[in-house]
Amino acid sequence: MKIVFKGKSDHLYLQIAETFQKQILDEVLKIGDKLPSVRLLSKEHAISVSTILQAYYHLEAKGLVESRPQSGYYVSFNPSRFPRKIEKSDPIQVVKNKNVEAIIGEVYDDLAMDGVVKFSLSVPSPEILPLARLNKAMIQSLRDLPANGTSYEKIQGNEELRRQVARWSMHWGGHLQADDLVTTAGCMNAVSYCLQAITKPGDTIAVESPVYFGVLRFAQSIGLKILELPTDPDTGVDPDDLRNALEQHDIKACFFVTNFSNPTGYCMPDEQKEAIVKLLSKHGVPLIEDDLYGDVYFGNKRPRSCKSFDEEGNVLWCSSISKTLAPGYRVGWVAPGKYIDKIKSLKLYHCITSATAQQAALGSFLATGRYEQHLRKLRQTLHTNSLQFTRAIGEYFPEEIKLSTPKGGFILWLELAEHIDTYQLYQEAMQQKISFAPGTMFTLQDRYQNCMRLSYGMPWSAEVEQALKKLGGLVKKMNGSMA
Amino acid sequence: MKIVFKGKSDHLYLQIAETFQKQILDEVLKIGDKLPSVRLLSKEHAISVSTILQAYYHLEAKGLVESRPQSGYYVSFNPSRFPRKIEKSDPIQVVKNKNVEAIIGEVYDDLAMDGVVKFSLSVPSPEILPLARLNKAMIQSLRDLPANGTSYEKIQGNEELRRQVARWSMHWGGHLQADDLVTTAGCMNAVSYCLQAITKPGDTIAVESPVYFGVLRFAQSIGLKILELPTDPDTGVDPDDLRNALEQHDIKACFFVTNFSNPTGYCMPDEQKEAIVKLLSKHGVPLIEDDLYGDVYFGNKRPRSCKSFDEEGNVLWCSSISKTLAPGYRVGWVAPGKYIDKIKSLKLYHCITSATAQQAALGSFLATGRYEQHLRKLRQTLHTNSLQFTRAIGEYFPEEIKLSTPKGGFILWLELAEHIDTYQLYQEAMQQKISFAPGTMFTLQDRYQNCMRLSYGMPWSAEVEQALKKLGGLVKKMNGSMA
Lengths: 483, 483
Fold this sequence. Notes:
The first copy, chain A, is an alpha/beta fold. The first copy, chain A, is 41% helix and 13% strand. A seven-stranded mixed beta sheet of chain A has the order 5-11-10-9-8-6-7, sandwiched between helices. The model of chain A has no long low-confidence stretch (mean pLDDT 91). Chains A, B: Keywords: Aminotransferase, DNA-binding, Pyridoxal phosphate, Transcription, Transcription regulation, Transferase.
């Protein structure tokens, strides 16, 4: 047997692992199949035993294979066929009467509790962040800044940080300049300015569905009407569906999380992004693009953003480092295209400026190669986590559940049996100190009560596996009690 | 001659200085009068020569007396009668058509220029801040915080900081608990949440006039109508005027900077505060109280706040450390009374949380006696500055100008001859690298074009004196050119 190792990675062991991974996903190797013996493979390909072992360990960490003592490595799991996939959403535009605001408050408050396994928190846990290096950058910036960072930053934000974000934009097909950007207190803060800049109370905006609850709540708080669009769990909003919506409704703005969306994890294909940008441009409707998760891709390159197809300044591209470096720094940014003056005014009137020291620290952090180095590690960890979570959910949850298959990001979206109310499940899970985000948070409609969002942004561990097992047990019990 | 020294300060030299200061203000000692000789005073009162000298130096630093070689100390200046005082404003509710937004943008942008004497910036300059101690607190908090401050803070904000702000509230007659407070990204951010929590687009709010431009701009940006009330430059809005306004208009909220207001510097007397709180409570109209400058008083004790008279949770008390410690930290707070849940939701939807490290650093800074110690020094510096500025303005500006007489805070409000446009003056002053805030920024009406705000939050120096001299010269020239 001769295999051609053609993974796209630099390292040989990764090339080997990727080749086997593809065979597993394509079901060339089926669950239960034995992988070639290490010794044999080493001999045939003139590759050292330790490199082959490294490749197998890597597949084992991802939960794809298991080693059986005195026997070898066997395929144990294939994420591509198990469990069932979620279908495209079909929002019904019927408003529910649940007090979702109270549910969101409860979920957030519970985050402060000690000893809770926080599947509800869609940020990386500190264990997988470069804390020491970030802290060094912070202390250095406090030392270097005029008046130790006690003075106001420019309204538009720290110049070095903006320069670095602009430099980084080439990774997603962008060609930003520092002056195209305004810094904000995180990505949600950027989105909030965008919505205020381009809408007025009573206007209608169109969003994907399910959609990040923060945007729904914010839009409601400023008096907007919200149209939830059908959304494919792999590719997001279809241009045809959007065209229909634009023809039937007076839509003033769109909001999409185009890469590894929260909560479904879809990643919009590049051609679709281009089509959406052209369509919206034709209708004169601005797009707020939340590209918060774009850097955390599991494939070989970063997906592009809608902004990269924007020729008219019609896309307001928002992002931050809250999902990759330091949520508590509260640093984000927006490239608001032709709305930049409005965004600067809004920032001035709301907050004057954002915190000085963190912006400077991130500016210098991004200027080195450290961010890239950290991201490489983070992607690996999260990819492995996503596979481990998927495997464990397949193992511990009822068979008929459906599950998203994200190609990046932090989160899984689960659809349980129709009769299950995940808010009730949440309350039972919290008794066992397990939190997650109930599906009802992600819509204003009477939907997704049987869905839930799980974050896998923490290191994989026996404790996490136990928590998933308990959670699966609770779901099975609820399944049974209604059967 | 036997004088009874009865100043209220701890130090004997300050008691002596305060006694003479009172005599100067009361015109018992007139400009040109000689103070008792140091030797004589020392002998009569059995006080050391050095203590008497310290008292005279103190008066000299305040610009009240001058030493004449081989002769002694003479009264050189009496701020209580010179120059003329500003009259109560009488807003006319006629909207102007100047592009004030552009003017504000221009003034802010010019702040970034090097080598400009920034009379426009109403924050303390770094030279009078405890930079080293603050920085130490920052570095310590980065070290002590879980995950070095990279994690989200609680939505309500750092607990120790809230506890310290609550403890500090006894200084202004408050009795807050940590749980009564929500932290924000500075005071303007707190005010912005308050306005959003209690109004909806189309509502009318009542404000003092002239009023801090940030509030005007923010209120406009969320679609509010603004009623500018007559405002006394010493005592603020009169309860009778407010009653009339409440009867004639459907006012949904009031906004007042009750202590050392920006820009007129008025401080509302305690009885008046109580009357306003009762009146608003009777009408069910909430009060947003901006108490940003309250800690920077020149008298013997901190003025109370309206919040201290609030029994129904009807006052939303906002403040920050941007005017006393570190504007660039972007830390403020609000005690929103019965609106606390709404404020917490708004903060969550706009920004999720505020920056973690600065909150913790300030919590520990306020827990020691350092804040009190710093404030004592800051008040002294600013009081001296206010007197020096007043003296210099009296010396270099045309005689007929009118000037505020603040009892605290950072700023002077000048009224020039009616025909002078201070925006035109601003442009001429910037040619000489001097900035200030033109009066037109502080109203939505066709008013205050001949007014200007000067900040004295920088160390007094020959350069500052020169800048005031140049500015006075420009005003004199404009006076003359139209005469």
